Amino acid sequence: MSPEPAPRLSVATVCLSGTLEDKLDAAATAGFDGVEIFAPDLIADPLSPAEIGDRCRALGLSVDLYQPLRDVDSTDPDRFAANLRRAEAGFDVMAGLGADTVLMCSSVAPDAVADTDRLAEQLHALAGRAGERGIRIAYEALAWGRHVDTWDASWDAVRTADHPALGLCLDSFHVLARGSDPGPIADVPGDKLFFVQLADARELSMDVLSWSRHHRLFPGQGGFDLPGFLAPVLAAGYSGPLSLEVFNDVFRQADPLRTAVDARRSLLALAEATALPVAPLGTAGTVHGNTATPPARTAPAGTRRGVGTDPVAVPPPELAGPAFVELHGGPELGPVLRGLGFSRTGVHRTKQVERYEQGGTRLLVNAAGDGPTAVAAIGVESADPGASARRASRLCAPPLPRTTGPGEADLAEIPAPDGTSMFFCRTADDGGAPVWSHDFVAVDEPPVPGAGITGIDHVGLTQPYDAFDEAVLFHRSVLGLDTIADGQFAAPFGLVRSRALADGARRVRLALTVSLLRRGEWSPAVADPQYVALATDDVLATAAAARAAGVPLLPIPANYHDDLAARLELPAATMARYREFGVLHERDADGDLLQVCTELLGGRLFLALVQRTGTHDGHGWADAPVRMAAHRRSRLAHQHRRVVEP
Amino acid sequence: MSPEPAPRLSVATVCLSGTLEDKLDAAATAGFDGVEIFAPDLIADPLSPAEIGDRCRALGLSVDLYQPLRDVDSTDPDRFAANLRRAEAGFDVMAGLGADTVLMCSSVAPDAVADTDRLAEQLHALAGRAGERGIRIAYEALAWGRHVDTWDASWDAVRTADHPALGLCLDSFHVLARGSDPGPIADVPGDKLFFVQLADARELSMDVLSWSRHHRLFPGQGGFDLPGFLAPVLAAGYSGPLSLEVFNDVFRQADPLRTAVDARRSLLALAEATALPVAPLGTAGTVHGNTATPPARTAPAGTRRGVGTDPVAVPPPELAGPAFVELHGGPELGPVLRGLGFSRTGVHRTKQVERYEQGGTRLLVNAAGDGPTAVAAIGVESADPGASARRASRLCAPPLPRTTGPGEADLAEIPAPDGTSMFFCRTADDGGAPVWSHDFVAVDEPPVPGAGITGIDHVGLTQPYDAFDEAVLFHRSVLGLDTIADGQFAAPFGLVRSRALADGARRVRLALTVSLLRRGEWSPAVADPQYVALATDDVLATAAAARAAGVPLLPIPANYHDDLAARLELPAATMARYREFGVLHERDADGDLLQVCTELLGGRLFLALVQRTGTHDGHGWADAPVRMAAHRRSRLAHQHRRVVEP
Question: Which residues make beta-bridge pairs with B595?
């Protein structure tokens, strides 16, 4: 890789919630180099442009772009003259801010100029005014522009206008949402690429304006090929900032610091994918990467940034599957795990943690502290846990401070956006650094007979409302997983978004869900359910063993099985067993997914037994509404029992 | 009008949140006659179909429809045979439920039959099976059906199949969203119209499937012409239930009883608009129309319904403008109102309420009880307050119980969905029933000089998240207002939906807003702001008088006025005055809207001075983000002052 300088990383104030002050503080604290300032943010601010510019500089931020000039060109000469005066007022603001580049959007107005030569003439006139003041016009084609709605149409106009103060602004959303080929961007002279804005999106079937204004995402959170967009941009010789312009309904009202950290992570991961060098943050900047409670919003100015061009690009960990799943919970979990065929094989030397094993499947039970029964952590096997943790730090996800006893494995604990911890660890003892399993002292206890569990199939985690897209990016970038399913289903108490991530070999699977709308006061559902899906090759046998050992299995309504019998035409004997154990059965072209769930263990956690046939790649979402209604019912029944029984 | 029987009113379980039990209870309590049962609701329920049928009957509900059969026809004979077996399983369920009509959707599957004759043949075969069991197939064209996607295509197939157990299901959404003309429905034989589903929607620019699945509304909440749809349906001779099938993301997770009451109100208002008779509820059913706290969900079975066909159709009140706006608040409001030129002219005989007047503009201040300073009520002039209140009761919005002293006006107090009360009242004393203003005893106090207030321009009310669409229907139906604006704007802390309602003469205007997404934990904005916009013909003079009298006016940033000066090219002298008093100025083709706001009076209420020129019909939403940022700033400054000053 050539020793080219690291690109500057910028974020538009439109990406972040709050007043301009909130946004600048968040951008600086997250470690951005610069910002795009959106005019309405400035207009609502009591500081003058010069004071805002001073504030940015004090925070270590450059003002890389002021935006936008709208609807400047006009078929009406008087209106065009008025528009030029309006633009000059914008230049005055920029002089105060100390910004030298302004975004001009292609016009959406009825009087927009259609003729390229006439448009170029007006652009030339505008650029002339700008150039006299040392300002550059970055012209951008909105995907819904009246006449100029593709990047090559904007390039036609800019090329024809031929003014040194006029260049292009390229926005990945406008290019990719239209299905335009970014390849030919490589042929644009690099000095005509004034600015590049980056945004991702999920494939949604809606008009492009609504899609753009409400549902943009940070790179890596959606399905756009951002590396494929950036490559020709860089090949053309673009050397300006990589800047995020993401209009998103959730980010607009979420904590701006969390969003800013998420945003910066997206650029670091994109730079990695594009083999760009990036300047790392100093330690102070990384401390509050994605902790559950963000720090006070005071930027530790000056001390924040590191130096050099140390690349992120340590490869993501080779995932050899989950080393363990750690549950937080009390002694009530023991009998359930034993009933599922797990033997208690060890207790931690210094922590209140017990280890249960069945074959190579390991569950830990952490009884320290209060809090509900829940998934506390997932341990993933990494060939080099230390390198994986350093990589996470560079992706704004530093390990939590952690007390390690003498001789214990130094596990890196990375908090995911939902508060669950991810551990990078090694289980096999090859004579290197201490392995985590040695931190446990064997217990002298007879093993219980196994029940056929062969591994962790996946872990299901309901996400905090604001953290869903952040979580997708976190797991993609820090763990190196890919999105393998993206959908939604109608649950009894509202719609639920679902997204599954896994490695290519399907060793590590996460099933993330979130309410489509934030829950309100009427929320009788189980709040934020979580589960661990345990793999078995014979779900009926495993369920039978579990029930015999007293594990409370979730009853499934007869109506479900009646419907299933009609849909799949299964033998009566099979159906009888399904009814007995509450089997949920999904079938698609690739195979079958059979599930049996336990009742809730505490307020939100359950375990599932999962059998896959063929190459079925699902996570039980077709049957989730039935399961959710059943869990709510059993929870109500238990509450009722608690009330009526002494 | 002919003495035809009132139509039965039904609601689909898909409209409501919760388990099937929650939904049936809500539908019964709201007074529906019947339900459509959505198969997935039944499948997730532990009661057998027969038990569900019994439960419906115990609640006084008929099962008017079971739905849906999907993807029945097939170009593959084996698959069609399997689909028929699947349909038979559905018929078994219906036998248990005691339902005789099933909805069949046009197929969306790749193997759907395109040829009308072949499709008709398969429909005939299915209807034959159904007919043998006393079941009717109501065939519906989904707007996104593979081949059959318009109502007339579905009618072609039904007519060609020509089987007595086969008829049409018409869904207003599918007809109106495609822009189909419902007029020719009048020519379909009435006995072939098996079922009619009603749904409204706002005009949204998105694919019809997403629009249908997420954004349907109850009739009267959107922009579809439901009376224009229903008229030809009735002209054809349809006499079955009027049933609601509304897929809506918010309703899916809101309190089902509130939604059910809202739903029933929509049908009553539609029946009124279509001049249909409707059976009223008995008193027990109306008590908990739309109180802020819905009652326990136990249905008072049997006693719920009244008898007869007493129509709703008392016309909505003739609105002669607001009689008063009542603020809840303490003595701190007095100086502000006096500063705005209002004189204290009376105190209520028996309640802790003071009356302030300026010309014909009346504000009441209610100091009873705790709670924040807020808009407590709006009094609207009605020629016959009693009739208006009875009409509201019939629209599931009964008056609150209220203590009236001897000789006092018997005001009907109707709570709106946001908890604000609406009073129907008379101010002019024409010798009839007591007028409300006589309940006040004059105070012996010198009047303050007026400040130019000429009336109540409008009242701005932030709605509870779940109540926005409900509020629109409430104000349209109960007050007889119309939607005059519908939009959204980007506020500093997230997107805001806005909707204005008014009478034709613009005497009564309400500006409703709600966060596009429910607010989360990071909510530094002023929570649920409310305001009363006071009309003036000279906002600068009124603001000058107010400031001279010590009213705290909201400062507006210089950046806003710099931008305004550039946009509107206003004279420097005008701009100087604007800056002095914090004038916000919006201009459109119809005229100008000038506003000056007070700082917050308490936690959420402010007053605005509003001057309109020309026929400007707006509500200040373009400038709302600037105002919101300013209010947050002044609130923080006050909090800070409170902390740092003794």
Answer: B584, B610
Range B511-524 average pLDDT: 91
3-class DSSP state of B144:
coil
Task: List C-alpha distances in Å: B282 to B58, B293, B306, B414.
Answer: 18, 20, 4, 18
Please give the interface size between A and B, counted as residue pairs whose CB atoms are below 8 Å apart: 180
Give B-chain residues touching A250 at CB under 8 angstroms: 517
Pairwise CA distance, residues A588 & B175, whole Å: 33
Q: Where are the domains of chain B?
A: 9-276, 322-636
CA distance linking residue A324 with residue A378, whole number of Å: 6
- Between helix B558-568 and helix A77-97 the angle, nearest 10°, is 160
Residues in A closer than 8 angstroms to B495, CB to CB, are 214, 249, 252-253
CA distance A319 to A384: 11
Residue A264, phi then psi, degrees to nearest 5: -65, -40
For A308-373, list the strands marked E by DSSP: 322-328, 343-348, 353-358, 361-366
Chain A interface disruption, residue of B16, B17, B634, most A CBs within 10 A = B17
Interface contact A254-B520, CB threshold 8 A:
yes
| B581-to-A203, A445, B338, B526, B621 alpha-carbon distances in Å | 48, 81, 18, 22, 19
| pLDDT at position B582 over 80 | yes
Q: Which residue of B has its CA nearest to A567?
A: B86
Over A245-261, what HEC string results?
CCCECCHHHCCHHHHHH
Enter the tokens of residue B512. 């409703």
Q: Of A628, A616, A632, which Cα lies nearest the Cα of B40?
A: A628
pLDDT digits (tens, 9 = 90+) for B411-426: 889 999 999 999 998 8
pLDDT digits (tens, 9 = 90+) for A169-206: 999 999 999 899 999 999 999 999 999 999 999 998 88
Contact A253 B519 (CB under 8 A): yes
Give the number of other Cβ atoms within 10 Å of residue B307's Cβ: 8
Percent of chain A with pLDDT over 70: 92
Q: Which residues contact B540 (CB under 8 A, 6 or more apart)?
A: B577, B581, B583
Q: b/e for A515-547, b at 16 or more Cβ within 10 A?
A: bbbbbbebeebbebbbbbbbbbeebbebbbbbb
Complex ipTM: 0.91
- The CATH superfamily of B9-276 is Divalent-metal-dependent TIM barrel enzymes (3.20.20.150)
Structure token digits, residue B44: 């997730």
DSSP A379-435: EEE-S-HHHHHHHHHHTT-PPPP----TT----EEEE-TTS-EEEEE--S--SSSPP
Q: Is the domain covering B322-636 a CATH 2.60.120.330 domain?
A: no
The Cα B260–Cα A642 span in angstroms is 32
Nearest to A567 among B86, B249, B632 (CB): B86
In this structure, which topology does domain A9-277 adopt according to CATH?
Answer: TIM Barrel (3.20.20)
Candidate from A39, A90, A560 with C-beta closest to B44: A560
Q: Is the pLDDT of residue A163 over 60?
A: yes
- Which of B214, B517, B566 comes nearest A518 by C-beta? B517
Q: CB B629 to CB A44 under 8 A?
A: yes
Closest Cα in chain B, distance from residue A429 (Å): 45
DSSP character for A206?
B
Nearest neighbour of B48 by CB, restricted to A520, A558, A565: A558
Contact B107, B76 (CB under 8 A): no
Q: Could you tell me whether strands B343-348 and B353-358 are parallel, antiparallel, or unpaired per DSSP bridges?
A: antiparallel
Q: Which alpha helices (H) appear in B236-384, and where do they start and end?
A: 256-273, 283-286, 333-339
Q: What is the DSSP letter of B129?
A: H
Mean pLDDT in residue range B536-561: 98
